[in-house]
Amino acid sequence: MPAFLASLPAPLLTVLSHDWLHLARADQLPPCPLAPWTTWAVIGGRGCGKTRTGAEWVSALALGDPAFTAEAVGRIALVGETYADVRDVMIEGPSGLLGLPARGPRPRWSPTRRRLEWENGAVALAFSAEEPDSLRGPQFGAAWSDEIAKWRHPEAAYDMLQFGLRLGRRPRHLVTTTPRPIPLIRRLLGDPGVVVSRARTADNARNLAPAFLEAVVGRYAGTRLGRQELDGALIEDRADALWSRDGIEAGRRARAPELGRIVVAVDPPASSGPRADACGIVAAGSDGARAFVLADATLRRATPQAWASAALALYHRLQADSLVVEVNQGGEMATAVLAEIDPGVPVTAVRATRGKYLRAEPVSVLYAQGRVHHVGPLPALEDEMCDFGPDGLTSGASPDRLDALVWAITHLLLRPGPEPRIRRL
């Protein structure tokens, strides 16, 4: 093969170096355009090339590449978690539509109109999954949905998009995502009409920074989180976990009601530096009978000043009543750092007298009773909750987000507190 390539003229080699059919892996190429499929789901790990796959597919459809489509597609929807994600990743990102190797005039991007237009008149329109109703009305011949497992309203946005795929002889939809076991992902993977391609982070190693492969892949390979985020595996709940995803999903709310109390709970690491545990930072509020988990601002490998500043920023943003800080390990240091940065903030020190599992059990009972609700998606926290059993997390790591959550809910619902003052979020 090297000798054959060396015999080719330079212009042809240049074309081949940019030709996606020549460069792509098998999992990055779509099903046959003549086959009767409607949805192609590319399920993969972080950095496996999902964005490049989506951008190449959309570009080929817009330009009418016969290897990808029987005819050019004139109207295409680009849907991401937010409009900023569509712009920064799907369009302007290094692997996005504007970052593809030039094969002629580049499409023109109009940010104010949220519109990408090719010279032949084909148009791609940008949409945010946070606004499902924005997909009500427009119609398309194809769509690319990115990272649907992170969408705030996955079912509503996905369903609205399906109603708009009604142009051409066979409208088609590409989904690119790292999986999480939410109902929509289960629905797609269980649908015999959906063509599924899978990829791992390691499959794209030649295009990834060696430091990333060493630090991230090396650290998480083989763990539950690594199997999901690196291998693109759909990891279901542990049978012995205190929480289930279905239970959390059943209690999820789009917004919180008027709240009488709000706290920010902090589970500080015992040390700092590259090997230190994360600092769990979780905010929750209560209306008296129920608790609402509002935010997860947990930081990894942060200095005491960094995590203290993050906790205080969340406290002020939510107009919270108190910081609830575990003081078992490094407690005096934690409260001292918080007081140094903002001495006016009230700090409630709490001390663990039982193990993590025993502290978490009463909180899990409140969830089972329907008394705790998550406001919007909190994926990293929820992954930790649904992987926490009698022996801790399967990875052996410290459940720092979960610890902070347990302190917050315990403080709000399982201990007496001050008279509430009503806040609207």
TrEMBL record:
Pfam families: Terminase_6C, Terminase_6N. Residues 265-411 form the Terminase large subunit gp17-like C-terminal domain. It comes from the Bacteria. The keyword Transmembrane does not apply. Keywords: Viral release from host cell. Gene3D superfamilies: P-loop containing nucleotide triphosphate hydrolases. This is DNA-packaging protein.
